Amino acid sequence: QVQLVESGGGLVQAGGSLRLSCAASGRTFSSYSMGWFRQAPGKERDFLAAVTWSDGRTYYADSVKGRFTISRDNAKNTVYLQMNSLKPEDTARYYCAAAYLHGEYNYWGQGTQVTVSS
């Protein structure tokens, strides 16, 4: 199993940047694909970005492509989400998730709030 703790959220003005971090427990972090999701009030949880365990390949939702960058540091058991050119519609609670090998995202953090003011 793996436990996830997000950090780095906060209040930022439109056009600004934030970097979210997700620290994972456990010794097999490199065997987990990692993803970032977000959920705004009254809306479903949306996929944002993922980085695979095997080759570090990255995937992005169209809504954040070119603005957000996912990366991982296996030595630190941490995955990051660099968010640039933030918009008020990016306001949401952001979650990281882990999927073991080729499995589904079964492990979730508690989330960190991001608020973008106009």
Description:
The protein has 118 residues and is an all-beta fold. It is 0% helix and 53% strand. The strands form two sheets. Strands 2, 4, 5, 6, 9, 10 and 11 form a seven-stranded mixed sheet that branches. A hairpin with a 6-residue loop joins β4 and β5 (46-51). The protein is globular. The chain starts with a strand and ends with a strand. The mean pLDDT is 95.
Key phrases:
118 residues, mainly beta, seven-stranded mixed sheet, four-stranded antiparallel sheet
Topology:
Layout: E1 4-7, E2 10-13, E3 18-24, E4 32-39, E5 46-51, E6 58-60, E7 68-73, E8 78-83, E9 92-100, E10 105-108, E11 112-117
Parallel strand pairs: 2-11
Antiparallel strand pairs: 1-3, 3-8, 4-5, 4-9, 5-6, 7-8, 9-10, 9-11
Question: How do you describe this structure in short?
Answer:
The protein has 118 residues and is mostly beta strands. 0% of the residues lie in helices and 53% in strands.
